[in-house]
TrEMBL record:
GO MF entry, a single one: sigma factor antagonist activity
Protein name: Fec operon regulator FecR
Organism expressing this protein natively: Saccharicrinis fermentans DSM 9555 = JCM 21142
Domain of life: Bacteria
PANTHER family tied to this protein: PERIPLASMIC SIGNAL SENSOR AND SIGMA FACTOR ACTIVATOR FECR-RELATED (PTHR30273), PROTEIN FECR (PTHR30273:SF2)
Keyword Transmembrane helix (UniProt): yes
Keywords from the UniProt entry: Membrane, Transmembrane, Transmembrane helix
Keyword Nuclease set for record: no
Stretches that traverse the bilayer: 94-114
Gene3D superfamilies: 2.60.120.1440, 3.55.50.30
Length: 325
């Protein structure tokens, strides 16, 4: 798992490269304001980044000469008879010593942590669902506004490590190399399987469609098989059993229900159709259960069919889905 320091460094790099979300920016601001040391560290990285955009400044500075000058002045200050006024090195020359060092350190951070600067690549979706086939043959489909980061050598690496933000459906190419997906505090590890990971705010859901998956947090580990899901909320990892295929409705456009009552179905519809903001149940007769499925059907068609199954009125006004007798 990434430690807190590495997470902060990634937030700083995201800020410097203009690849940071509003929530991440808020996290960075909270961290900066928490202590003067954090603010100073951030300003140090920011200064090094800005200086690195114009490398000609390094060619105009004799670093060795400047350091000797600084060292000489420091030695002079060891004698009480010397006036502090003689220590008159300019800010620019002091920066000439430290900025290249910071630049080298930042370059290393960019190589190891920022996609496009070295060992990592990134793929992200915007307003539409998008898919990518990784160099190892695995296929990843990203829901809207999601992103993955993966190593360029994923096909030959000892471990296929991926970082996810948002939601994605993974169809992992089977081989002997572990395939790991990290999102927040949750790590998912497989060899070859199909599973979905959804990150909403601080909650994370892992749903297994086929195969076996290991899901772990710093405090707990679960082994999931087809039809099971793990939910991590407020640091607690729990296991659930249900229609996990419905968790990838955004990908498959299919819904499956087995002996489900109307409340369960309405909850599933609200989860998968973002236009449904609220659900109102104005009936006491909820004993009926049905087994049914919907393939590539719009909300209007689904509601019409459910009215027949349950002999109820299902009215959607654009925001609220109301069920009544």
């Amino acid at each position: 798992m990434k430690d807190d320091n590495k997470n902060i460094i990634q937030l700083i790099i995201g800020f410097l490269t203009h690849d940071i979300t509003d929530d991440e920016l808020k996290q960075l601001d909270v961290w900066k304001k928490s202590t003067p040391e954090n603010q100073a560290k951030f300003e140090q990285y920011e200064s090094a980044w800005l200086k690195s955009k114009n490398l000609k400044v390094f060619q105009q500075i004799d670093i060795e000469k400047d350091w000797k000058c600084v060292h000489k002045q420091i030695n002079k200050n060891k004698h009480p008879n010397n006036s502090l006024k003689r220590f008159s090195i300019s800010v620019r020359k002091i920066a000439a010593v430290f900025i290249p060092i910071l630049f080298i350190a930042l370059s290393g951070l960019l190589y190891w942590n920022v996609p496009g600067f070295g060992r990592l690549s990134a793929f992200k979706s915007s307003t539409v669902i998008q898919s990518v086939t990784l160099p190892d043959g695995s296929k990843v489909t990203l829901n809207k506004y999601s992103k993955i980061i993966y190593p360029n050598n994923i096909a030959t690496a000892a471990s296929r490590d991926i970082t996810l933000s948002g939601e994605a459906f993974f169809e992992v190419f089977h081989n002997k190399t572990p395939f790991k997906v990290e999102t927040g505090d949750v790590m998912v590890q497989v060899l070859g399987t199909k599973f979905n990971i959804q990150e909403i705010n601080s909650d994370i859901a892992v749903s297994v469609i086929s195969g076996k998956v290991n899901v772990s947090t710093p405090h707990k580990q679960l082994k999931l098989t087809k039809g099971k899901r793990a939910i991590c909320s407020n640091g607690l990892l729990i296991e659930e059993y249900g229609e996990t295929e419905n968790d990838i409705f955004w990908y498959s456009h299919q819904l499956r229900f087995k002996q489900a009552n109307l409340i369960d179905i309405c909850k599933e519809l609200q989860k998968n159709f973002e236009e449904i903001k609220t659900v109102k149940i104005n009936t006491n007769d909820l004993s009926t259960r049905v087994t049914t499925s919907f393939d590539n059907q719009n909300l209007k068609d689904i509601l019409e069919e459910l009215q027949i199954h349950f002999n109820k009125k299902l009215i959607f006004d654009g925001k609220t889905l109301t069920v009544s007798d």
